[in-house]
Fold each of these.
Amino acid sequence: MTAANKTLHDFTLQGLDGKPMPLSQFKGKVVLLVNTASECSYTPQYERLEELWLANREKGLVIVGVPSNDFGAQEPGSANEIASFCKLNYGVTFPLTEKLVVKGAAAHPLYQWATAKAGNAGRPKWNFHKFLFGRDGQFIDWFSSRALPKGPRLTAAVKEALAT
């Protein structure tokens, strides 16, 4: 399959629990993919991501957190440490993956594909970069680290994606 024909659903990640997380399980759902870190000034976004998830999961939104140590080495923890931190500090219940590389030539194939879809301007430049995918697994848009999970631009994009 060529990159042009791929969708989000063609990729499988490993969950933070070590179990396979085929993204095909999210067919028919809108997915917000967010690279995360526990020691970043943007880390409080976990709280708003959880609120966005809880408010919209019954409508078909899935948030997938992707811990990454790529930016400022701000995700040094083990899988257990990350899971504990997210649950205890922010009550995170949305799916989290294993720690991944999300930038450059060593990036996970999903991130290479998503970055190609987003273009150079849409490549992850820091923690809490967001990619939005439609119910069909097609790329919709990207949002910088500064875009708040419950900010007007992201909220409008999620609402529109959920309506289709």
Amino acid sequence: MGVAPSDAKVYFDRDTYGDKELKIANVNYIKHKLRNVILSDYSVAPELFKLSVNDALGFVADGGTGGPDGSIQFEKDKEENKGLAKTLGVSKTIKVELQRTNGVSLAQIPEERTREPK
């Protein structure tokens, strides 16, 4: 009799298993970059909030999928996401700059937990 595969999701918590200084440095870098963008254009602040909320609202409770996972970059044509292209561009620019020195996903800019594949 074989054992059925599990549908468990595995999360990697950098606070427990990773380089905490690197995490803190990344978070500080993101804060610094976002602060500079907001100071140069105040209209970005509410749009950053809307981007984060709209991405988080993709959560599906029945399946435990979605949520703040960066998938909004593929949903920018939806009516509720119209006008977020500029703010999404800001997030993508920060992501590209961070990826020069380490791996970071778009979802990690607002959320510091990464998902490992099944």
